[in-house]
Amino acid sequence: MKPTFLFTVIALTAMCQSTISAQEPGPTIQLTTREVSLGHFRSDGHITTITVSPDSRRVAYTAGYRGKMRIVVDGVEGQECDGIGEGGPVFSPDGKYVAYVAARGDKVLVVVDGVEGKGYDAIGGLRFSPDGKRLAYGAVRGDTWLVVVDGVEGKEYDGVADIVFSPDGKRVAYGARRADKMLVVVDGAEGDEYDGIGGLRFSPDGKRVAYMARRGDKWRVVVDGAEGEEYDGFLSGSKLVFDGPQSLHALAARGSESLRVEVTIKAR
Prior knowledge:
- There is one protein chain.
- The protein is mainly beta.
- 8% of the residues lie in helices and 48% in strands.
- The chain is built from 1 helix and 25 strands.
- The strands form 6 sheets. Strands 5, 6, 7, 8 and 9 form a 5-stranded antiparallel β-sheet that branches. Strands 1-2-3-4 form a 4-stranded antiparallel β-sheet, with no helix packed on it. A 4-stranded antiparallel β-sheet has the order 10-11-12-13, with no helix packed on it.
- A hairpin with a 2-residue loop joins strand 19 and strand 20 (218-223).
- The longest helix has 21 residues, at 2-22.
């Protein structure tokens, strides 16, 4: 029995040594932490709609206190108002500016970095340009809609939608409705009227603007006012995709056939 006991002890010792030697070494790095204060949350009010800038360096939120609302940015409180628009504050892509819709009495207005714009009956679709230097939105005055770009009002329509900036932020386009017709407005200039439009977008270099348009029961691609071939429709979820400054594609249907439509843009 003694030899068996000795063998067991030796085996267990060997197993322990093997286990110890197989353990991974401890950490070989040291972490240094730097904390940057982004302000404090109010403890005496109701906080909603917390928004963080794209670079995570700024924080804005909606705070309710004694029946009034305000936006707090980086711990600094803005002016009191009667309400804040749905979605709360919006940061520009570069994080330098913050905008929101505020209600005051029976009017609503856009506030950009504390500067108030003109009052309207309703406001929607706040859009910063990709470079963060420009701001556009739709506004209601009475029974009509208009688009405001950098504080300048556009023409009045029965409805507006799909505000889009070019990649460089220099151009702006949107859809508009006049009675039962739809049209695209690019830099203030109106395009042809259609029964429906969609998929509005700029080319990567910002020089071209394209969209899908319906006249009657037929759809086509429109680029800078030039119409492409007719189709029964575009596939659900399909969108116009620029493959380069002078080419794009979409997915369409003609009869029972689905098609990849490739469009090349050539100057006349």
